[in-house]
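User: Could you walk me through two proteins back to back? I'd like the raw sequence and the structure tokens for each, with a short line separating them so I can tell where one ends and the next begins.

Assistant: Of course. Protein one, sequence then structure:
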Amino acid sequence: MNVIVTGSLGNISRPLTALLVSQGHHVTVVSNDPKKQADITQLGATAAIGSITDPAFLTETFRGADAVYAMIPLSFAEPDLCIYMHRAAQSYVQSLNETQVKRVVFLSGWTADLIKAENVEHLFDGLDTSLTIMRPASFYTNFYQSIDLIKGKGIIGKYLTLRYNGLRALLTGKTGLLMGNYGGDDRIVFVSPKDIADAVAEELQLSPKKKTIRYVGSEEMTCNEAARIIGTTVGKPWLRWVLLTDKEMLQGLKMAKVPEKLAKTLVEMQSVMHSGKTLEHFHRSHPKMGKVKLSDFAKEFAIVYHQK
């Protein structure tokens, strides 16, 4: 097959590209960074350099493709996340309709049907194609964002490192640290990007007649259980995951001068995870769990942790 992979060489797209190439497919990787071209070529794929918000570029790239893996990376440089995601989704839809690609797999998220700003899935409903929506749970790789926090305080928080107007800000709440408004003993499904890549590769080679939705996870546990696994691997078995209130989270985002609409969206995204609604929807779909356990990822995490 001639497969288009968007997402440059990110956490999912890199292992997905390697897997598809190993299966004998011709793979084109879309990236907005010209510096990634050599790495893409080294993987045995072809690079297409341009923006997913440019429908003319996407149309040219998608022409002749058998299948497309489409994703929209979160951009914290955008003051209105909803407008940005809709613009990117509409670019995809226009290009896919013009090129009549027969198989599309779109990466969404497990909070998508609960968050108005994040949910652009419905924009793909008008496609005359075989469509699967992927809804992965919380990425293992998000733990990398907490390395400095773990080193300094022995606390895990789903704090976000944001770039806005060129400013890198670590958000702070009343505790002096920014942590997410989910955590503690909240039960969460975590997922390895490798398991997502495996699931996407599998879906790209299927052709369901109706739109399908597939949830993807690797392991379920409480946030504090996850913190102990990560902490034990780096020599801090007492590691804990602090939970902020929605108000504290919003205050921290505002202190970092994040635009109000974006700040409220970020708070809402984590609030539904704290509520348990995302877990309920995940279980309702009865998904097959992936192979990579958090303890497996923790070994990779420890290497990065000790190098910093």
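----
Protein two, same layout:
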Amino acid sequence: MNGPINIPKALRSFRYAGVGIYNLFRYENNARIHLMACIVVIIAGVFFKISPVEWLLIVIQIALVWSAEAFNTAIEKLADLVSADYHPVIKIVKDTAAAGVLILAISAVIVGGVIFIPKVLLFF
């Protein structure tokens, strides 16, 4: 019996997850859009010297949007594998998964607005 944690298995799991992240940003256009937005927000955060709590909110929002995009991509790929042909139920599944990403993206924009709009207004 192995110890409480199987280190080689855990390392393989991290490697698989890393490949998933790589594939997400390599093949998914919307993930790349979120990545560009993330870079802009990080630059703005550094420029405006946002507080640690504001950084935490930004990091949580970024992680939520990227996670939602990953789940959405996984659902879409699985749905395409199940049926390459048009199916109304699969369309609903894919549209609903995309809606989840959109809801989180809107949330991220609102959080970003609350954090950055006052700073931008003070700057000008």
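The domain at 7-123 is CATH 1.10.287.3610 (Helix Hairpins).

Let me know if you want the two compared in more detail.
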